[in-house]
Q: What sequence folds into this?
């Protein structure tokens, strides 16, 4: 059995524009590996391509090029062409439970659907299974006949998580699962995910723009910028020894809550300029238009990912020379 449950090799996903031969390069040559039982946070600003990776892994988009291996099996194709066991083992929770849950169906109908599709329950024990799913996310059977509109945002997201859990997935993709929710319920969702992941040992790809969320949640963190991975590191290393200028810029701008965090935080780094368009990605290092440390080579040559330590890699010319 491969050590990595998910392996993404040189993945590209380009979308055509209205202009001939011009593309939005949403994902541009990404290599990424997710270990079994690991939570990997993929963090980036809006438009960095992180959700496109999630949707391509889920088969909602087919890759422009590159390969996606799930448990060693090539799944670089759209969902309709994937075998049923892969669909069962790979589930996603979307950002907005208000739109991802069918408003015409009650919670029982929503949660029994994946059980029926994947033949995971007999007709006479479906309700029992649905109640178990609700209990997994700490909702009672009183919710069975409610409709999504009668639930709060946090409760709807818990139902969406229960639906994703229904098939007993090996890999769960979480696409900004807390960003549409009030701060007051975000912690409940995060704690539920941490508990389920540790009890069931599933692997999670957690897509977010909220770097601070990763500190107590992820085992490793990957930073994306303009369709490319800039740095990947174990979480502690990531927060204590960030190397890429872009990572340092992001970390220097997040609020801290303790003196200890303040000491670990890099000096404030302000990037100049705007994020370039993913249609016109700058040559060389794509961060050079905003990087205060850019040197000549950065304008012409794209840096390769350099292995700096165990599981820690960075794509920056400052480290290539060493
Ligand atoms: Fe900055 Fe150059 Fe490193 Fe890019 S490669 S982040 S421009 S120093």
A:
């Amino acid at each position: 059995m491969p050590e990595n449950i998910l392996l993404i090799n040189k993945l590209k996903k380009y979308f055509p524009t209205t202009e001939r031969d011009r593309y939005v390069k949403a994902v541009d040559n990404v290599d990424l590996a997710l270990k079994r039982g690991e939570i990997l946070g993929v963090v980036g600003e809006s438009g960095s391509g992180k959700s496109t990776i999630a949707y391509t892994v889920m088969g909602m988009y087919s890759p422009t090029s590159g390969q996606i291996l799930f448990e060693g099996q090539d799944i670089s194709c759209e969902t309709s062409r994937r075998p049923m066991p892969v669909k069962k083992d790979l589930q996603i929770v979307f950002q907005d439970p208000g739109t991802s849950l069918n408003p015409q169906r009650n919670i029982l109908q929503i949660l029994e659907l994946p059980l029926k599709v994947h033949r995971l329950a007999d007709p006479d024990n479906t309700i029992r299974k649905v109640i178990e799913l609700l209990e997994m996310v700490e909702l009672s059977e009183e919710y069975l006949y409610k409709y999504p509109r009668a639930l709060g945002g946090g409760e709807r997201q818990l139902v969406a998580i229960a639906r994703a859990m229904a098939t007993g997935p090996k890999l769960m993709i979480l696409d900004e699962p807390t960003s549409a929710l009030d701060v007051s319920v975000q912690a409940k969702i995060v704690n539920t995910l941490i508990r389920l992941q540790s009890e069931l040992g599933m692997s999670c790809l957690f897509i977010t723009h909220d770097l601070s969320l990763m500190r107590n949640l992820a085992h490793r963190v990957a930073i994306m910028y303009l369709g490319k991975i800039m740095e990947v590191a174990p979480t502690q290393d990531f927060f204590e020894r960030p190397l890429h200028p872009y990572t340092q810029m992001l970390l220097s701008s997040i609020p801290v809550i303790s003196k200890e965090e303040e000491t670990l935080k890099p000096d404030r780094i302000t990037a100049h300029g705007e994020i370039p368009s993913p249609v016109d990605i700058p040559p060389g290092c794509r961060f050079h238009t905003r990087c205060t440390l850019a040197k000549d080579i950065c304008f012409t040559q794209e840096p390769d990912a350099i292995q700096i330590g165990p599981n820690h890699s960075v794509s920056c010319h400052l480290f290539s020379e060493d």
Observations:
- The chain has a mean pLDDT of 92.
- The two ends are 35 Å apart (CA to CA).
